[in-house]
């Protein structure tokens, strides 16, 4: 009887929903927002996915985005989001789910000329990039020497509005949302788009407690029933 009960317990544990110890993130509107009326569209998608796989995922806002990325490399059963997938990050994480493809572009302030080609962007005195974002490395690799690294998205959008930087290079949803959220006049002027990048919910390398197939099925179900599209639409995305 005892042996039977133990076997049943082990079987139950094997069949129980996958769970993650935690999800690491940072305050990067509109992807993940620590407080306020919006949660961020990637955070909303993750919360819905967790419900569908039958688990609670504590969401941890670290001291800095670079620190959270480093922590996720060594932790066990840990999600990290929002993370753009590129060659420098490829081996450091497992890539659980692609949430959306997003354009990355230069934006200038309303009334300023568009930085519409490579010559114009390189001629600018100060191009803002967010700390911890891969855009800094990308532009440095392309030979840009006019970069100003700012701590948060809010710092970037305020600097653009106040003329402290001449352009901001970032994902288009990040620029557009922060401009609206800070209630700034007009709208950013879009310029040169250098790439379209896939945005992911990723995991640590060691994930014995995360059932990838279960999470991916839940995401596929969200796409089928329109939940994924509705969340993106609420943030002005298609």
Number of domains: 2
Named at the architecture level, the CATH assignment of the largest domain is 3-Layer(aba) Sandwich
In CATH terms, what is the fold-level topology of the largest domain? D-Maltodextrin-Binding Protein, domain 2
CATH homologous superfamily grouping of the largest domain: Periplasmic binding protein-like II
| Cα-based radius of gyration, to the nearest Å | 20 Å
Indicate the low-confidence ranges by residue numbers.
1-20
For the record, what CATH class of the largest domain applies? Alpha Beta
By secondary-structure content and strand pairing, the structural class works out as alpha/beta
Instruction: Tell me the number of helical segments per DSSP (H or I, 4 or more residues long).
Output: 9
* Shape designation: globular
How much of the sequence lies in strands comes to 15-25%
- Strand arrangement within the widest β-sheet reads 2-1-3-8-4-7-5-6
């Amino acid at each position: 009887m005892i042996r039977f009960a133990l076997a049943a317990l082990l079987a139950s544990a094997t069949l129980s929903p996958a769970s993650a110890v935690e999800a690491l993130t940072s305050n990067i509107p509109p992807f993940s927002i620590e407080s306020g009326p919006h949660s961020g569209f990637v955070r909303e998608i993750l919360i819905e996915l967790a419900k569908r796989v039958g688990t609670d995922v504590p969401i941890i806002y670290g001291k800095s985005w670079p620190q959270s990325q480093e922590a996720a490399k060594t932790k066990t059963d840990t999600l990290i989001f929002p993370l753009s997938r590129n060659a420098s990050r490829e081996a450091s994480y497992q890539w659980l789910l692609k949430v959306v493809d997003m354009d990355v572009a230069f934006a200038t302030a309303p009334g300023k000329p568009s930085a519409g080609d490579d010559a114009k962007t390189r001629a600018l005195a100060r191009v803002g990039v967010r700390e911890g974002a891969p855009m800094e490395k990308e532009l440095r690799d392309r030979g840009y020497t006019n970069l100003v690294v700012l701590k948060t998205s809010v710092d970037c959008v305020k600097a653009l509005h106040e003329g402290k930087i001449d352009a901001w290079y970032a994902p288009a949803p990040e620029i557009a949302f922060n401009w609206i959220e800070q209630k700034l006049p007009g709208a950013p002027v879009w310029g040169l788009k250098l790439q379209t990048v896939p945005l992911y919910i990723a995991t640590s390398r060691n994930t014995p407690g995360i059932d990838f197939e279960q999470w991916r099925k839940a995401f596929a179900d969200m796409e089928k029933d329109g939940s994924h599209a509705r969340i993106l639409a609420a943030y002005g995305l298609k």
